[in-house]
User: Fold Serine aminopeptidase S33 domain-containing protein from Pedococcus aerophilus.
Amino acid sequence: MPAARLLWPTEVENPRAIVLVLHGGRSKGRGPVRPWQGAVLRMAPFAKAVGRAGEGEVAVAELRYAVRGWNGAEASPLADTRLALEQIAAKYPGVPIGLLGHSMGGRVALHLADDERIHAIVALAPWVEGPDQPRWHPDLHLLVLHGSLDRMTSAKASRAMATAMERLGADVTYERVENDTHAMLRRAGYWHERSADYLVQHLLVEPYDAGHQADVRVSRDERRSR
Assistant:
């Protein structure tokens, strides 16, 4: 039986925030996720963009699900992500977490929007189904990006979900990315930078520990003096 893997492309000694990157998948599929699959590779530049934007204050984790499919009521990647969140919270207790998910990964992120450890979500062309319910908590910030030429997931459904979450009280921004498809390649730089900037902006708004911040500043000054 394949197992999920939690990887850390950007590690930070004392991060002020963590971003967990969630790749896409399929409606059904019990084959293992491989690192060379397109859904996984597509998220690598997003992870790098967040690491750069975080400037040494945001750690970035990537989750590779155990299997490629959502698989109906099993919601396979959702269980994997819940376990990853427990691992992250144990490693960095009290540190705010952001989620960055594409397609099926966006669906996972929206299903976890009521988890109070999660302060910000970017959902990229999220896969939203009719039974999916809006979730939120008072400190949640959500950005939904959907390409105008997307034929894989429904922009109408993702916008409806964003509107429903906003009505509940979440801070929601919905953006239509003109002239781009589900693959997010035509305006790749925009997708990467907008996602990273949004997450860093909302995760680092409030310092969670003043002493920690001082340590980070000293560490930065030491690196620059070398």
Residues 207-226 have pLDDT under 50 and may be disordered. DSSP finds seven helices and seven strands in the chain. Residues 76-91 form the longest helix (16 residues).
